[in-house]
Amino acid sequence: MSIDTSAVSGQIVCVTGAGGFIASWLVKLLLEKGYTVRGTVRNPNDQKNAHLKHLDGANERLSLFRADLLDFESLKAAIMGCDGVFHTASPMTDDPEKMEEAIIGSKNVMTAAAKAKVRRVVFTSSIGAVYMNPNRSPDTVVDESCWSDLDFCKNTKNWYCYAKTVAEQAAWAVAEEKGVDLVVVNPMLVLGPLLQEAVNTSVVHIMKYLTGSAKTYVNAVQGYVDVRDVAKAHVLVYEAPSASGRYICVESMLHRGELVDILAEYFPEYPLPTKCSDEVNPRKKPYKYSVEKLKSLGVEFIPIKQCIYETVRSLQQKGHLPLPSKLQQ
Length: 329
Prior knowledge:
Layout: E1 12-16, H1 21-33, E2 36-41, H2 50-53, H3 58-61, E3 62-66, H4 72-79, E4 84-87, H5 96-116, E5 120-124, H6 150-155, H7 159-178, E6 182-187, E7 189-191, H8 201-211, E8 221-226, H9 227-239, E9 245-249, E10 252-255, H10 256-266, H11 292-295, H12 304-317, H13 324-328
Parallel strand pairs: 1-2, 1-4, 2-3, 4-5, 5-6, 6-9, 7-8
Antiparallel strand pairs: 8-10
Helix pairs in contact: 1-9, 4-5, 5-7
């Protein structure tokens, strides 16, 4: 399918935290579609951003701006003159100190976007801002109207979900106050091939089972989605005039036991765990969720088994995992 670039030629968009896992794929897709992209990074000359300079179209239409989420002026410099902003830079952390950064960063990006009068801001949030609620009945379908309970996040010391929720709420507050058109994507755990050299937090989630560092798997469920679909979802909600509000982004939910089974099916040579760390309680069941909203815009998801397979192959190719032949020796 050829990509129609006529609508975007000359459009300038800013992607914050451009060197990150999701952001790198987003930059790649935006360049392929013909956008001129300004990426904010902490240090444009850092080796960890080198992969961006090799993307198709980067020479002509990608510029990297030195910016810090806590430095409003640096963000404003990158965003002034842009048609749209993709705010993907947010610390993946359980550190309460970093939470403040995520919240201030949200406000700074939204305020700069308002000053620049951009057409739309697409904000990368998380399912962490949606599902953490102890009072939800198991029959409730988790959809875009659900919000995580901040007290519950605090009491269980789930600072990641707390930060994601507060940062997203801060973005909505500024959007309302300053009249910014904001659309939010809420992905579950993001896997898929890496464009960047370093391993990111979400991919470590499956790598630990292949390296033998996890001797058992936990009795838990997790939703998964391919990074390429997350990038597509961002572009789609930016371009679709009808897009509004939040969009849950997930392909399917798996129990850790099912995840390990899929890994064993494709990569039996690795020292995968075969036991659950909790053999007393029944297997945790996935909660019900809806992705109808995103599907109605035309998103078709890469099947989770293909996504898992390609994630591991990517880790092998980048030298993060030994190749099966080496394991046999």
